Structures are given as structure tokens and as C-alpha cells.
Amino acid sequence: MLPVIALVGRPNVGKSTLFNRLTRTRDALVADQPGLTRDRQYGVGRLGPSPYIVIDTGGLSGVREGLDPLMENQVMQAIEEADHLLFLVDGREGRNASDEGIAERLRRTGKPVTLVVNKSENLDQHIAATDFYGLTSNEPVAIAAAHGRGVKPLIEDVLSTLPPATLPEEEDDRIRIAVVGRPNVGKSTLINRLIGEERVVAFDMPGTTRDSIDVPFERDGKKYTLIDTAGVRKRGRVKEAIEKFSIVKTLQAIEGSNVVFLLIDAHEGITEQDAHLAGHLLDSGRALVVVVNKWDGLEQGEREHVKTELKRRLQFLDFARWHFVSALHGSGVGNLIESVNKGYANAMRDMKTSRLTEILEDAVMEHQPPMVRGRRIKMRYAHQGGKNPPIIVIHGNQVDSVPATYKRYLVKRFRSVLHLDGTPLRIEFKSGSNPFHGRKNKLTTRQVQKKKRLMKHVKKSK
């Protein structure tokens, strides 16, 4: 399982900025305005030695009116989910009564807490932290989340105190398939149909599944494990305490899988929650199969409308395989395993450096990269940098300036030539450093004398 870290503190202390820094995304809205974050925001931490789940929360203000009690409830749920708490304070404003009240509440939770003094840029770290001694039992850590100063050592220290991230082992080379989606889209029904027995409880009521369940099975001599997850619903509709862990459990199931089924209800169409979950799946890098369930109950005109909306709202999942099925009656379900095998094979494929470099050269010849400060970006060669998802590393000069549009062009080119459907593809760039930068070539005595003679002729000509 992945460890869970929650960010808590007063409004406008930089929790969302730190969240974006840890996840290497811009998912959390950031502005110099208190109270911008209201709901819990989940993401997978990418900064640090190992993955983890990080939760951004709204600010604890202590006011008992308006939205504040609802926001406080969201924060308390995040605290219960977390294994470690990062308590953020503002180094520029200094210590105040709200910080002391929050510290007292965090002490009562019994959870390990790290006091983080944010916005310490242009301040001496020791001086910035001095004002906050005594709020927690440990020593304050000064950082500048907006600039990244001190953030990496902070998360490395926190992760060293937590159990290492443990992903389920692939016993007997099993392919692990996580089945995710909103409540009541038919996840449990689909699993029962795939394995041919009533293995998990399927009922026409949202929230029947409360925890992630592993279901091993075999098909055509290959071994698989299906992971049934609790439905991820809108946070505002989560009423029961036992449901509040569903998002964490789902993210952990995704990280522990090889392939993911994203289930969508054809009758309800694509919702904001579906699109948000699809974004998490894209960030995870797992092979993906989009399964549109309850397809049998739609008329032809309704089907065309649903397909148009899916293509418009989920166009960033163009690499995924799409299936329109009825889990209840079994129509179309038999083709899912073929897409699982194809997506997994592409995600784990070995690619030769010579072949990748050849594809890169053809792509550059057909469409040159743009000019940067009057110089052309040069891409020299490419090699494989990882699997699940496949990563292609391109070496060259000025590749840090490659625009996003040209990067998308390269992704589509590699995917088309290599037939990498069913899995996302990532491209990374590395600039070659000049080994002679800053070094001056020492002239010999003969070269020095020749230079002097040339300079005499230059002076005479003037």
C-alpha cells in the first residue's frame, strides 16, 4: 500500500502550492487568496524516493459559520485517512493563535506531525523557524514551496519514517487488473461475468462494495487478478464514515495494477467525476481499457450521442481501447481480456535503441523542431527509459525548450509506428552537457608568437 500524507494548516499558508510541487502537477488551484481550496484534493506524490498519496485540504480557520464547518469536516476526514501530517505555517506572518489551536487539535489525533514553516524565501531558515518552536514536539522545517527550496529533503525525511510503499507482488506472472469507476456503474457485475461466478456482491444500490477485493482467475492458460474497488463518488455525497477511504483505496489499487478498467455508465454518460478519475489514470501511466457499461438499454440515436460525448470529453485517452458492453447480459465482455493482454504486452515491451533512433530521425526529417533564439533544436538519438508505462528518452541540444505541441507530435509518431495502443507513452528529454564549457585551450609558444605577428599586421592596416 502507498503511504498517505495530508497537508493541513490555516488558509493561505501554501498547502496547494506544496501539493503541486509534490505531485509535479498543477491540479490544485493556487492564488494569493485565503479559502480557495474547499474540498479534499488527492494526488500521487512524484517527488521523493518512492510514490505516496498526498491530500490537499482547505484551511482551518476556526470560524463556525458559512462554509467553514463543511471545510473543517473535509480536513478532519483527510487527517483520519493520513499516515503522516504536514502542518504548514506562514514564516512571513509568524505565529498566531490559530496556529496554536490547530497544533492542539493535531496533537489529540495521535498522528505523527511535521511542522513546516513555508514562505521562508528571503528569510534566514533558522530565524524563520524560531518563532514556531513548541507548536509540535519535533523541530520546525523551513521551506519555500513556491521555489522548491527544502521541499525534497522534507519529503525524503517524512518518507523515511513511514513503512515503504508496498505494491502487491505479481505471483506467477499474474496480470493485475483494477476495475474503477463511480458507484453503481457495474464493477462487481462485470467481475462476476468475467470469472463466471457470483464472487463479489452485486446489488442495484450505490456503495455496495466497501473495500478493494482481489479476485484471481485464469483464462486460456493465463493467470489474472481482478481488483474490485469501491466506487469513487463526489466528496459532497460521501455520508458514511466507512466510505471516506474509497478514493485512497482506489488510488492504491491503480498503483498496484498493470491494467485498469475504467467503467462508465452509458445511461448517465460522462460526468465530471469520470473525467477527474480518467486524469488520475493518465497520470498513473497504467495500461487502460475504457468500458462503457449498460450499452444494451440504449436506442441507436442515444448511442451515437454517447459516443460523441465520450470522444469530446475524454479525447486525452486516445491511446486506450474502448469497449461497449453489457455486464449484466454478457454482450461484448468476452473481448475485454484480449485488450488487457494487448495493453499489458505494449506496456512491457522492449524497444531497441537503433529502432527508436530511426523513428526519431524520420519524424524530425518530416517535421523539423522549431527554432530557439535563432538556433535549431537538435535531437540526436533515443532509447528506452522504462516500462509500464513505456518511456522514451531523447538526447540532444536545447531539448529543454521543446514546445508541448512538438512533444505531442513525437508521442503520436512513436505510438503510430510502434503500434503502442492500450498504454500511455511518455517522452523525456535530456540535454548533453558540453565537456569543454568553461575550459580555455592553452596556447603553445609558437601559437602565441604567431598571434602576436597577426596582431601587428592588424594594427598596421588600421
Automatic annotation (TrEMBL):
- GO term, biological process aspect, one: ribosome biogenesis
In this chain, the stretch annotated as Disordered covers 431-462
Write out the entry's keywords from A to Z: GTP-binding, Nucleotide-binding, Repeat, Ribosome biogenesis
Q: For binding GTP 2, which residues are annotated in this chain's numbering? A: 181-188, 228-232, 293-296
Q: Which residues bind GTP 1?
A: 9-16, 56-60, 118-121
Function (record text)? GTPase that plays an essential role in the late steps of ribosome biogenesis.
Q: Which family does it belong to?
A: Belongs to the TRAFAC class TrmE-Era-EngA-EngB-Septin-like GTPase superfamily. EngA (Der) GTPase family.
Please state what the protein is called.
Answer: GTPase Der
Species: Solemya velum gill symbiont
Q: What is the lineage of its organism?
A: Bacteria, Pseudomonadati, Pseudomonadota, Gammaproteobacteria, sulfur-oxidizing symbionts
List the gene name: der
